[in-house]
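Milestone M4 deliverable, item 7.
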Amino acid sequence: MKKTLTATVLCALVSVLTLGGCDLNVSVETPSAPAPTPTTEATPTPDPLPNDPPVESTIPEIDEKAPPSLPTGKIKVNAGDLGSVASVQAFADDVAAGDVEKIVTWCWTRSPDEIRRVFGSPNYRGAVLEALSHPGQGVTAGAYWEGDYLSLRFFHEEFNSRYACPHTEFTPSEASWRIKRILAVHDGKPVHAGDGENYWLLCDQDCGHIWDTNHLTYLDPVESRKSPISTASKAQWDRLRTLSKARLSVEVLNDGHYYRVRAADGSTTAVAYFTASWSSNSLPYLLGEVT
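Output delivered:
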């Protein structure tokens, strides 16, 4: 029994260290006296990612221990020069009420985990309400509010809906949710009715003029080419599906013109490229290529 148990333990240890299998049909001699165990240092797993600037968080630096004077109740959104802001007011009312789950339900285009993390902060909710008390401004891609602690941006597809959800940074959580939405549409089972139609997910010929398959940099707008995702093979879609199951890392490329999404632990070599976050040329975070 002792001999079998020793073999089992060694097998488990070998399996963990080598990430491989182990054959129990081996002869293992039990020493009469315990031999000294050599001291070894674990070899660190090399970082599979280069030193590109990562994207980590969307919560601004608001000191939770000494909160500033922020709104805590319902406010009237300052429309500024925007006219009707009913969609933003609906969002603001839920922020004021602290109804995070209602925001999750309405803002289904955003990562549920990210919404709970961000709007779970009372100071963050206060900073959002403070920003919306400033005059709203119309910009090329939608609407904009500049607060003392943060700025809020609403793209046209959100601003013109019944419930406006603000733009968020392309964090790993957001990237993971977006990939899941893209695959759901690709499979004919969108996470919500209208996704992929009312909400643009793929960079097609309409944004092809900003996609350079060789250098991932902006081109002259007069030069039009299709985005590679429009001709992606089944193998490429399968690679995206594999990537969707990994813990992700998001990196900024070309001064924010593109985002690269990869497996943070190197569990897959699949790479997905997305468009910039704020651009007059296209909506943010459109998938353009999978390699």
